[in-house]
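Batch manifest, entry 17 of 40.
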Amino acid sequence: MIGGGKTMRFLAAMALAGSALIATAAPAQDDGASEIIVTAQKRTEHLPSVMTQLPYLDRRPVIGLKRQADSAVRHIEIVSDSRDEDMRKHEVESMLLAALDRAKKDGLGLVIGQYEVTEVTRENWRTLLPALAKKDDSEEEDEDDSDDDDDDNNAKPKPDFEDDGSNATVRLMVKTKLDGTIAEAQKKISTFVKGVPATGRSLITQKGMMALTIVNPEQYRDEIYRRIAEGTKHAAGFYGTEYGATISGLDREIAWTQVSNTQVFLYIPYSFTVGK
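Output type: structure tokens
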């Protein structure tokens, strides 16, 4: 029961809204361990496939939960421009392994993903980067989809590894726990990048801007429910005891957006009306 003497009805509404960011095409369904990248952008192109199948609501409710992000990430590229293809792959692989060792020593992580990040380790990198791990180049990659790139080339993320004939490139991110300012996080990442030893003509460069991550947004659902209940009860109270609120959208997935250099805002795209 919420509201002055009126039973507040919680109506289902299968629509989703929100901001998400920057990983694989996997849905942003939270299983208790997922870590999601967050950006301040509000574009459906940055939503996983299950999200873009539903209407996009360009409105963020006032009530939600603002908290510090769990980590900060920065894109990096490991590149080699050696003339020989096998040598290019060898050099970026060697520098990747050196980066993994250095990251572990520095308390950082190397991750891949555009929405949900996955940690790269010495044990799983071959699985996560199969094109780099493949030693037998006699089996050519399937190029049948090259004609499909004309319409959505800009929307497609770049592959985690590619060799264009001149440069071999591994793309991933450095992740650091966000326990201070964003400047401190950037300093940690820059120090790490400078400390990774090169192999041959390989090098590491930082790309883009820092982004934030949030671990398992679904864990905050109950707290958001509580805040919505308090907020709607307070709003209905201005109209008298005979008024109550009708809420819709509480079954929607949690959405998120970046609201400062270090903070994210988690919310459910709900709506409510006040009436007798």
